[in-house]
Specification:
Chain lengths: 226, 495
């Protein structure tokens, strides 16, 4: 009630790269990635990471990359990376502020989850996990707890999900390492406790690769101005 | 909001003044049988309450054969510790001051015209709370429907009925659900210890009463109806501490978008994200029921059955179909339909003719003799892998008995003897089920639709007389059992 009557504090978002760094610092698993200021830099980074890669425009104010067409998937060689990075940098608008190109190896897995943190008006900071992918909203299979959670809470959150089939062997992929997934939820809870300015965090998607969860995109929102 | 404005908190003595008063003042007692001030007095006088009862009103005289005082000041000092207030809101501050001077520690405010009645009412409510805090007085309500306390034979409420005594204690943000739960208690025989309708919850609310119930030796399980959440974090932390000591069954109104709109106009509560509320309950160890009926059954099960130590359920049935649908119901929960252990199968082979199911559900397939059902129940319940039993198939002999007893040939043709036999058998089955639950510390639930369709059936009476709950269907028994397992598991995982 107090949260509503008080004027909402202003917030700002971190870039994908900075969001991942913040969360990785508390134990959230992130795929290798590199940041480049130029198209040539992006190609060099891709050479080091190994192909195929994904390239995305990265900046503090860029929250809806997919909707704006700022994600290029499955880039197979340096030329493709250079071309994609050039287009991405050209697509940046003045509102986007400082931008760079994020390059990361393509991560393959047919199962997508979502996980995150959100402040609830009545219960304060919460941690959630759910079934991801394009149908996530329609499926609405999510479980929520109040931060902080203990490991047993994380285990029970996974048990809460209706789509338990996702956790078994799936399309030739091994079963989900539930311990590793619990680690992600506990890490999110830890991040929320350690960062009082944290307003929300989204790991979307959290892809299951060889049974283990890896966050391939992240968005963190903090209280106040940058 | 008022609760957060003050540090005053009721102590155990205040709750005892409310639930175990040595005397009760009914302020605003009326001679008019249609008024709350009459109904409340009637219910207090008629429920067997042994303490002093002092009706007060402006005119004095006699109400329901009881002399009425014209002023609370005339109540002898120390003779009452609870005042039940039905007077108009404007007169209540003066009333409470005088009452406090008489040693009264608790007030139930049935009067309306407070927080539910606009800005002026909200101000009157805040002032009432501030005054009560100063007076060191517990104030419940306002705009509530009353309290019951069966250990004190106290029915200080303006809703009916008065329930049998038992181990369930209720707190509700909606007074009529007190009545609903009491109706279920009367119908099932599984009784109530305390119940309170907290109305606008100005000074104390649901979680305050849950904390008292956790301390209360008369209470075994709490049952709560909530709509609004004022301070979610505080609720979570206190609810969790209560659940560590006692099971809490909770129904939340406004769980859907439509319900939330209705709740906003009922108690002015803000919508809560139901997924957050649900997760909060699971984390805190509170058992959340979807419906009022399911909530009562869960509470009745906590009140009358031991907690299961594991999820393994064995179904014992005298007919195949019943067992099959019960197996379906179990499969829809976190309970396990226990695969039949080889040694148990071998034991049952010796007790049963070969046509029994040889699996879980144990289907006797009509192969029983006089002692079969009690023996099989005992054998199954005693097996160490069995955590709980759902027993189906009672009441068939009771039905035969009812038909024959009510038929035109009774008591000739040997009917009297066979009717007596059938009824004694039903009692044996239900008594065996109850005794095994007590002896082994394992839930043994009995289900038959006769609980609703023919409560006079010998089997249903047998369950009620054994102090257990007779489930109207096996699926409802399974849902209740799953709630017990969830609570048991929550405790096991956190100790």
């Amino acid at each position: 009630m107090t949260a509503r009557s008080a004027s909402a504090p202003s917030t700002h978002t971190l870039s994908e790269h900075a969001s991942k760094e913040l969360l990785a610092g508390h134990g959230v698993p992130i795929a290798d990635e590199a940041i480049a200021a130029t198209a040539d830099g992006a190609a060099t980074a891709a050479d080091e990471l190994g192909y195929p890669v994904v390239a995305k425009l990265c900046g503090d104010s860029i929250a809806h990359k997919t909707e704006r067409g700022l994600v290029r998937l499955g880039l197979g060689d340096a030329d493709a990376v250079r071309a994609a990075a050039t287009e991405l940098l050209a697509a940046a608008t003045a509102d986007d502020g400082d931008v760079s190109v994020l390059v990361a190896p393509m991560v393959n897995g047919s199962r997508e989850l979502i996980a995150g943190l959100a402040r609830d008006d009545q219960f304060g900071m919460t941690v959630m996990v759910g079934v991801g992918g394009v149908l996530a909203e329609a499926i609405a299979d999510v479980s929520v707890r109040l931060v902080p959670i203990e490991r047993v809470d994380a285990e029970e959150m996974l048990d809460d999900l209706a789509t338990q089939m996702l956790f078994g062997p799936f399309r030739g992929e091994p079963p989900v390492d539930r311990d590793a997934l619990c680690d992600v939820l506990v890490a999110l809870s830890r991040a929320a406790m350690a960062e009082p300015r944290l307003v929300s965090a989204d790991l979307n998607p959290l892809i299951i690769v060889d049974g283990r969860p890896i966050a391939v995109d992240a968005l963190v929102e903090l209280e106040g101005q940058p | 909001m008022s609760r957060e404005m003050s540090a005053w908190k009721p102590k155990t003595e205040h709750y005892h003044a409310l639930f175990d008063p040595k005397g009760v003042v009914v302020a605003g007692a009326s001679t008019h049988p249609g008024k709350f001030g009459f109904v409340a007095l009637h219910n207090i006088l008629d429920s067997g309450y042994a303490g002093n009862v002092f009706p007060t009103n402006r005119d004095g005289g006699e109400i329901l054969e009881t002399p009425a005082l014209t002023d609370v000041a005339d109540v002898p000092d120390g003779a009452a510790d609870l005042i039940f207030v039905c007077t108009p809101a404007a007169t209540n501050p003066g009333l409470l001051k005088v009452a406090a001077g008489k040693g009264i520690k608790a007030a139930f405010i049935a009067s309306a015209g407070y927080g539910e009645a606009g800005a002026e009412g909200r101000r009157a409510q805040d002032e009432l709370v501030a005054l009560a805090n100063d007076l060191d007085m517990l104030v419940v309500g306002p705009n509530g429907q009353g309290i019951i306390s069966t250990p004190a034979s106290l029915c200080a409420q303006i809703v009916a009925p008065y329930p049998p005594p038992g181990r369930i204690s209720i707190v509700s943000q909606s007074g009529n659900f007190i009545s609903s739960f009491e109706n279920y208690a009367n119908a099932s025989g599984v009784g109530i210890a305390r119940a309170v309708s907290c109305g606008n919850a100005a000074q104390v609310g649901v979680v305050d009463f849950l904390e008292f119930y956790a301390d209360d030796s008369e209470t075994g399980v709490a049952l709560a109806y909530v709509e609004g959440v004022v301070n979610g974090r505080d609720l979570y932390e206190r609810l969790r501490a209560v659940c560590e000591r006692m099971p809490v069954v909770l129904v939340k109104g406004g769980a859907t978008a439509g319900g939330a709109r209705a709740a906003a106009s009922h108690t002015g509560s803000l919508a809560t994200d139901d997924r957050v509320f649900d997760g909060m309950c699971r984390q805190a160890g509170a058992i959340r029921a979807t419906t009022i009926e399911e909530a009562f059954e869960a509470a009745a099960t906590f009140a009358t059955q031991p907690l299961p130590k594991g999820p393994g359920v064995m179904v014992v049935s005298t007919a195949g179909g019943w067992g099959v649908v019960t197996a379906d119901a179990i499969s829809r929960t976190d309970l396990d339909l226990l695969p039949m252990p080889d040694d148990l199968r071998a034991q049952l082979d010796e007790q049963l003719p070969p046509r029994w199911s040889r699996n879980n559900p144990i289907d006797l397939a009509g192969s029983e003799t006089k002692d079969t059902i009690p023996e099989v129940l005992a054998t199954a319940a005693r097996h160490p892998a069995v955590d709980a039993i759902v027993f189906l198939g009672m009441g068939i002999q009771g039905n035969v008995a009812d038909m024959e007893r009510g038929g035109r040939f009774f008591p000739r043709h040997g009917l009297e003897r066979i009717v007596g036999f059938h009824e004694r058998q039903e009692h044996r089955y239900t008594a065996t089920a109850s005794a095994l639950a007590g002896e082994l510390g394992k839930p043994v639930l009995t289900a038959t639709e006769l609980a609703v369709t023919a409560p006079g059936n010998a089997a249903v009476r047998g369950v009620v007389e054994s102090g257990r709950y007779c489930y109207p269907s096996s699926n409802r028994a399974v849902v209740a059992l799953a709630h017990l397992w969830h609570y048991s598991r929550w405790r096991q995982r956190r100790t």
